[in-house]
What we know:
Two copies of one chain form a homodimer.
Chain A: E1 2-8, H1 14-24, E2 31-37, H2 43-60, E3 64-68, H3 73-79, E4 84-88, H4 89-101, H5 119-133, E5 148-152, H6 158-169, E6 173-177, H7 180-184, H8 190-193, E7 199-203, H9 206-216, H10 225-242, E8 246-248, H11 254-265
Parallel strand pairs in A: 1-2, 1-3, 3-4, 5-6, 5-7, 7-8
Helix pairs in contact in A: 2-3, 5-6, 6-11, 9-10
Amino acid sequence: MKRYAYFISDGTGITAETLGNALLAQFDKIQFTRVTLPYIDSPEKANAAVAKINEAAKESGAPAILFDTIIDKSIRSIIDTADAFKVDIFETFLSPLEQELSVESSYSVGKSHSSANSASYLHRIDAINFALDNDDGARTRHYEDADVILVGVSRSGKTPTCLYLAMQFGIKAANYPLTEEDMMELSLPESLRKHRHKLFGLTIDPERLSAIRTERKANSRYASLKQCYHEVDEVEMLYERENIPFISTTDKSIEEISTRILQTTGLKRSQS
Amino acid sequence: MKRYAYFISDGTGITAETLGNALLAQFDKIQFTRVTLPYIDSPEKANAAVAKINEAAKESGAPAILFDTIIDKSIRSIIDTADAFKVDIFETFLSPLEQELSVESSYSVGKSHSSANSASYLHRIDAINFALDNDDGARTRHYEDADVILVGVSRSGKTPTCLYLAMQFGIKAANYPLTEEDMMELSLPESLRKHRHKLFGLTIDPERLSAIRTERKANSRYASLKQCYHEVDEVEMLYERENIPFISTTDKSIEEISTRILQTTGLKRSQS
């Protein structure tokens, strides 16, 4: 069975997509064709959106599912005329919240993803630059400023996780690739030892690691199963010996790895 | 006035945070203390969460606002006992959706951010690696594979935007810094000319640019107002002359810049 799902917003559409996709994930028997219509901020655009939605309903033989986060009431009333099943996120929750909080909501458009000058936004951008500047052990002299330093073997997921921690949570994450030499030593490299309370280890199933490395360098010693087993063994022994908290990234998304790191370290998510 | 806001989930908590923050942004007169409790997946953890929430209510003298995306009914029923105003995202919308779609939801935990082996997740990770490998004009030989190539002067926002496009939407975005030489030439560099239909320009207010560059290199020619005015003038002339679509990044978040780029280019968001 096929249905259209529309995400409609007067802003970026990201909130409508996030909630909508979380809800649609609960209905995996149905194939949804997803369409996002951002910046619907005038009656003209709203009417054009309604025309599109009605066409989709006709084509698929069923009303579209519509997730919207439009604030403006006159635009909302146009969208309401579409042949669709509406999941009206703001309308459903804003009035009860107004009552509970005893204040009126500001009903301002696109608040959630447009505060480009807020302290927390600038903090996130700083954190992204920090992750880029301190990627892959390139520099260690800024470890003083890091909130967390991820360690692990090459291709265990350090870089994407650092970027996600920065982008989503405003956390300054550096990363340092543990080499065979580091692991054979009886102590951590000096640059890491000084900040050992900030270290967090990643590990990964050796077969998965070998598959990932093969995509980069097929038929190399680097990608061989034997080498991957060896490195993962060594790195896990190092974590145990040095008492470094660690998790396996196998089968985990960067969202999951990142939130598990926050949970273990007690690092705070940046407030928006 | 101060209130506690709790985001509670049996998964990462990211969906609850995104929706909750979008709603709370409408109440800017109230100072919310935000707390996320992810991975609440056992009665023990749920009881501990309730204790925390009740303590917060006592401390602030008002019930906490609680955004939750817990699927399991027995855990949900424990959370229900907390002294809080509940915004029950899934409960509110899942039953009506089940009726509309004539299927039962799968009620499975943490669907939205844990599908680490899905095609769309792997696609996002590929896109992140692509953005890193093709940052700052480092390489141009992979432009064949790019979905979009951002151009602009140094520090106009290209890199964070490329990373966001990759992470959120699975879009392969390269970027190329336009230098003074490029701008003085009467035609685009060969590596860009071949892919001109993929080019998208960023521009920025010269005073803002100067402020950003000053943070990196104070008192340099690079950061001087005069130089910034000159470069921005030149780059905007280049966009006009070469018919490259462009937007200003001044006062825009990477979320806004990215969704505007999608809107202008017609690039599709990756489906989850």
